[in-house]
Amino acid sequence: MIRAKSAVVLLNLIAFSAAAQAQTPARAAIVKDESKIEFHASSTFAKVVGEFVDWDANLQMGPESLKDGTLALDLKSNSVHTGSGLKDKEVKGKNFFNVKDYPDIHFASTGILPDPDPDKFTMTGNLTLRGITRPVTVAVVLSPLPNGNKKLEADFTFNRRDFGMTHNMMFNKIADTIRVTMELHVKPYATASAQNP
User: How far apart are CA 112 and CA 152, in angstroms?
Assistant: First the structure.
């Protein structure tokens, strides 16, 4: 009888351990050619959308949820592309991203809070831009894709003046609020050693 009880206890421990391991966040492989990271800026006469084409992301998540997960992003500021050579020159210049002096943009999450909607989360983190670090709050939606992968959509804003981008134009006022959007297509539960394709 004692041996039988011991066996049951052991099986329960194994099952509990397996369940806990299955929920442990691991690196999710990101399908980069289906993903994008953009900034959106507006002014009196125009809106500018720029896409960063050179970036790396480390997303740690469980098989079905971002709970207890983390996200770190590294973007090369010189890789921003607006579709206009003149706009590219302006946003890469000293008045804005100043890519010569600050080639890297970094984001690192500090926490994830669940929402009543199981597909929505609030992520807190630190954004480092032009050598200045400020906290930001990111709205995140995680949804399934038809191919079995998941789509992580993230959206946050920051005040450009907080990062030293104080330049303005006399007749074309640039909004202080800059919006950043991300759409990451991920294979949710790759092994911890998985590398981005």
Answer: 14
